[in-house]
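User: Sequence in, structure out. Go.
Assistant: Echoing your sequence, followed by the structure tokens.
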Amino acid sequence: MIPQYLVDFDLSELAVIDTDVIVIGSGIAGLYTAIKASEDRRVTMITKKSLMESNTRYAQGGIAAVISEEDSPASHREDTLLAGAGLCSLEAVNILVTEGPEGVKDLITLGTAFDLENGELALTKEGAHSHRRILHANGDATGYEIVRALSEQVAGHGNIDIWHDHYAIDLITEDGECLGALVQRPDGERVFLRGNSTILCSGGAGQLYRYTTNPEVATGDGVAMAYRAGAVIRDLEFIQFHPTSLCYPGAPRFLISEAVRGEGAILRNIHGERFMGKYHELLELAPRDIVARAIVSEMEATKSSIVYLDITHETPETIKHRFPTIYETCIGYGLDMTTDWIPVAPAAHYMMGGVRTGRHGETSIRRLFACGEVSSTGVHGANRLASNSLSEAIVFGRRIVERIRQTEPLTKTGAGIASRENRRDPVMQPVVERRLKLQKVMVRNVGLRRTKEGLLKGLDELKRQVPIFGAALHTREQFEFANMLTCALLLAESALAREESRGGHYREDFPERNDAHWRKHILRQRDKGMLEETSDDV
């Protein structure tokens, strides 16, 4: 059993710091929500590294919103529902497609400089979108530009207190209500940060896998923290593997944006043959899960660890203008996109599931909200449509702040709350080794293609690490590993339960989608175990 708290503490012995709104995380969801909340509230933002280190920063493709007169919210909704494979929430998707354009305008007001063409916002098209509706910045550095603009707003704001290099260990709850967070300072001191409202904006869990486009900080902290606190977790089995990450000796798993295929790049196997025609009529612009599995099949058939992405038919000027970041990164490793085929392979990219929320980001715990990748709003269903994630963070961040303004002041103090499990310092294998072992288990057994046999084997190996929850943990690395293990166990158990293939979950022993039995969500709650919930996507 995973305990409610990771460490022993007694709140009566800790310093208490009061604030109105606690924001945990500093990606687009955290930054934007903090800015909106700070208009009439005191906000304390906790970031375990720095403001600029988040998944958002690495988002290249852009942000999806209906801007063009040739496009419509109805068309955006249809594309989103189609990608979500029967598990989207119709209401959540409607909110996204109708409120997204206003959110984009807000980002522009806050200083985000999106690319222009002839004085108008430049729009591109990505896989599974029926219209050009992706706004981008500096070609392929959209996430970086948004984080830059929002960070500048946050850094100079009198109502926002930023706690750099602080770690939120756990949420403090009493009678189903969140009172705030137990936070460890850089010097190891622990404090109780108490707030009227707590918003999880802690991002995804790409680091569960050995190969990921996510930064080091994406360790699933928010999902694990919320699960321990008793919140409902939904759809964790759906993991999106980006089909095309750079796979080259000495280079990190750098994302080669979907937009490169959107602009006409084609996939070739190591024999130089274009192969997507064998797998889907949309070829390179098929949904991500289909492209990723096609690449793995092709790699196996050709006994290779890579395929190639070829955009050499475009002019060098077009490539350098549209994809400056990707071009410069590849050049740094001796690869020239204008003349060379780029070696790529799939890598873990995005977590569709997360902490279940309502239409205003509210979780099943009072005063606790979730926004961005850590949340499960119902927008993405079983497979996220490209570039919907940044829009989702803005749209639901704004809605969370609306709800917070209606929330009564906190009356509970947390007096008397303590966790005394008498944890001991065990002789522990170094955390870096444990982490690597977990990542390898996940790639091998809970990755792009899954089977009952593999999932059971993976679960068996993961369960051997469970004694860590009875250990006295002190460092950020130890807390992160405990959170990764929590998420890995929940993910593998959910994947084992779902005996079908849908979106980002593929079972080789159940390769077909089964709407008769599985058009529903798998929920996880610490005290109640595994539950199910019907989908309203018709």
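User: And one key feature?
Assistant: The first strand starts at residue 9 and ends at 10.
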